[in-house]
Design brief:
This protein has a single domain (2-180, 212-260), classed as Survival protein SurE-like phosphatase/nucleotidase (Stationary-phase Survival Protein Sure Homolog, Chain: A, 3-Layer(aba) Sandwich), CATH 3.40.1210. The strands form two sheets. Strands 3-4-2-1-5-6-7-11-8 form a nine-stranded mixed sheet, sandwiched between helices. A two-stranded antiparallel sheet has the order 9-10. It has seven helices and eleven strands. It has helices spanning 14-23, 68-79, 105-115, 134-151, 218-223, 243-253, 256-260, and strands at residues 2-6, 29-35, 54-58, 61-64, 86-93, 120-125, 158-163, 173-176, 184-193, 199-207, 226-232. The longest helix is centred in the middle third of the chain and has 18 residues, at 134-151. By secondary structure, the chain is an alpha/beta fold. Strand 3 and strand 4 form a beta hairpin.
Length: 261
């Protein structure tokens, strides 16, 4: 098996080193193609308006001055002599759950692989406070990857795995669940001035103080020390509750073209 590894925390992050270590226990054909610098929050973005610079560290290790999705595209379409059999994205420093999934470069890289016809898994280590339980991802990532491969999950799906903020022996369960909602309350914009007196801005996520903790969704279960697996689709299709609305909308629009004429 050939595995391509990437992330959004940067090529020198602790999580990608851990994921490479895990991948090498599965196969010796491991490629690392990752952003040169932290690219958190870039989602599925690819660089269409500027060139991509690539530093080749060794035969199967590349650092890219671009996004996680750029890394996947470059790997699959150009840098590798043949496609990988699997893309692993992570292990992200922090959870990728609920609303934050939409912004995640970790998930974006996995989705890009899927759109290129390669199965992919996103992995993240949720934490609260300062300490990060990397040992939990270390203990459970390999068996979960192997179980997913053995069971040949449905396509097109990206399994999004989050490890909880607890020691490995404190994990309560492994649960397949949908993403939650209401975790992000907005974005803070902080304006500053540079040495020439010109304004620049920092953006930062604002967590909702009353985040809805729906039962059996990823964020709520992570707080209860579950490993969560959230199946994600790239098309973002909204399931359920749209049939009646769609029919009513179609009826209300039925005469629109005639009326405009």
């Amino acid at each position: 098996m050939r595995i391509l590894i990437t992330n959004d925390d940067g090529a020198r992050a602790d999580g990608i080193k851990l994921l490479e270590e895990i991948a090498r226990t599965i196969t010796d054909d491991v490629w690392v193609i990752a952003p040169e610098f932290d690219q958190s929050g870039v989602s599925h973005a690819i660089s269409l308006h500027e060139p991509l610079r690539v530093h080749r560290e060794d035969e199967k290790r590349f650092f890219v001055k671009g996004t996680p999705a750029d890394c996947v595209v470059l790997g699959i379409e150009h840098l590798m002599d043949r496609k990988p059999d699997l893309v692993l994205s992570g292990v992200n420093r922090g959870g990728n759950m609920a609303d934050s999934i939409a912004y995640s470069g970790t998930v974006g890289a996995a989705m890009t692989a899927l759109l290129a016809g390669v199965p992919a898994i996103a992995l993240s280590q949720f934490f609260q406070g300062v300490d990060i339980h990397w040992e939990t991802a270390r203990a459970y990532a390999k068996p979960l990857i192997e179980k997913l491969l053995a069971n040949d999950w449905p396509r097109p799906i990206v399994p999004n795995i989050n490890f909880p903020h607890c020691a490995p022996d404190k994990v309560a369960a492994i649960t397949v669940c949908p993403p939650g909602h209401g975790l992000i309350g907005g974005l803070n914009v902080e304006e500053r001035c540079d040495v020439r007196g010109l304004s620049y801005y920092w953006l930062r996520f604002r967590r909702s103080p009353d985040a809805r903790l729906e039962q059996q969704t990823d964020y709520a279960l992570l707080l209860e020390d579950h490993i969560t697996i959230t199946p994600l689709r790239p098309d973002r299709h909204a399931d359920g509750g749209w049939e009646a609305y769609g029919e009513a909308l179609a009826e209300s629009l039925s005469g629109t073209l005639t009326q405009k004429a």
